[in-house]
TrEMBL record:
PROSITE patterns assigned: PROKAR_LIPOPROTEIN
The organism of origin for this protein: Lientehia hominis
Domain of life: Bacteria
MacB-like periplasmic core domain: residues covered: 75-234
Stated name of the protein: ABC transporter permease
InterPro entries cross-referenced by the UniProt entry: MacB_PCD
Amino acid sequence: MRIKTKLAIGIFSGIVVLAASCFLAFRAGKGNAEDKDGESKEIPSESVLGEETAVIALSEGETRCDFSSTAAVPSLMPLADILIKEIKEEEDVSEAAAFYLRKGEISVYHGMDGLTDGSILGIGMDFMPAAGLMIEKGRGITEKDALEQRRVAVLNDKAAMQLFYEGEAIGEVLEIEGKLFQVVGIAGTNDKTQTEGLVLVPDSTWPQLYQYEEPKAVALRSGKELQKAAEHAERVLNSMVSEESAIRYKIQ
């Protein structure tokens, strides 16, 4: 309890700094959830990972926080990793993982071909099942990749098509935010609503791409009720954030 109190105080004290780094996230609705006032709110249908995976990330009102230009409050950094075990304890949660997310103005190129309408994700070993992704070719990101901070990348099939068309991607080199990464695998999903190109890299390489760490989002899946599981994760994450804070974790 003492740790939670200290973290909450630290988070609240840094809200002014963090608020400057939020950008507008256009949200389409799916289903209903309840906000902290008990009122109905929309759960978006166009998550970066598709309708079958919920994503919960720091937001200010209807805007999702972006850390591309402003470093986050240090006390926010560990929350998703600290609380992921508690999130998984909910019976409606079948898989959950914390991950870095950079969406919007990203730079991913293979030669002259660039990725449009895509995202870069910094992931750990538990991310693939939480995102409903499966390796279709090559290999996934390994623990050794993470420990050695190897510059390797897994593309989903949409990103591979944009960057390589019908060509072979495995073994090729990408330029991600000006750094060279080797493609080691191609991933796919059975969720037809997942339409974005995804570039997955070891989360340990995130500081190489963006110079500083930042708070993670949470991806989760449910074998029962996804909405209920997502609401649970949202509550757990916000239990460490002051109720007066404008910056809170929200279902994306």
